[in-house]
Sequence to fold (326 residues):
Amino acid sequence: MNSKEIFELAEKIISGEEVGYKAACDLIRLEGSRVYDLLAAANRIREHFKGNKVSLCSIVNAKSGRCPEDCSFCGQSAFYNTNATEYGLIEPEVIADAAEKAKGMKSREFSIVTSGTRVESEKELEQLCQALQKIGSDMERCASLGIMERDSLLRLKEAGLESYHHNLETARSFFPNICTTHDYEEDVNTVRMAKELGFKTCCGGILGLGESLEQRVEMAFTLKDLDVDSIPMNFLNPIKGTKMEGMKTVQPLDGLKTIAIYRFILPKKNIIVSGGREVTFRDLQSMIFMAGANGTLIGNYLLTKGRKPDELLQMIEDLGLEVENY
Ligand code: SF4
Fold:
């Protein structure tokens, strides 16, 4: 695809056309200076649908380690020796304090994240409901609690949960290489159920697990089919002790190109660059927005530290972008 064709495709997307799988695969194989054309075209789509707003979200690691799943990248899996901190569900007050800190960092969304396959007990569910009530309604309350039952999701909704996060991690065709302890379909069903129950859905994955370029496109089309609202794009930050320990991080331009393709495939959705931003993009972090992202994570990740919040906010201001309010 040449420069003219890339920009023409972007204009078609702006006027409502959709990009097909084959065209998206052609785009993700672009190399050299055409990649910069692709980023500029994705930026044009982002500006059209998202203006100059950047959405920030923060997370708290509310329950860490000892997970019975074997996700090959995850420092919290009990299958690997990673020295990750291990603790049970933290008290509602501690979760609410973390949310308060997130508000101070201009975060519009706050997510309670727990390790494990699912919420383990009635006591845990009750504690999570209390935490949601304590956080209050002046920010978007999100949770990432694994595979869910319908009744539990309804209880959390009553307590104020607005958005449910559940990653697919990777493409369906690559998932057996990443996790063998549960089925891709279980993840898909949780996202479908959350959507049916009226939650906003936040669902993405991790890039750089060894998937092919076409499998990155495949995941984007699965997310399109599921019609999720926000797509967290994580980039592998290999954790010592996991199966991914020796993997190289995604190259910065490769990562930017992938963000751009996601903007082409999912033009109206929130594309949130999440874990691994610092190690993947290094000095090119500010280009994630020029590549089509309209949000990112502020504060620390589950097991690793993030960029200082002040520096991130300054970067957004320097780009002439504005933090979106709740
Ligand atoms: S990604 Fe989630 S489900 Fe998989 S091992 Fe880590 S905590 Fe468990």
In short: DSSP finds twelve helices and ten strands in the chain.
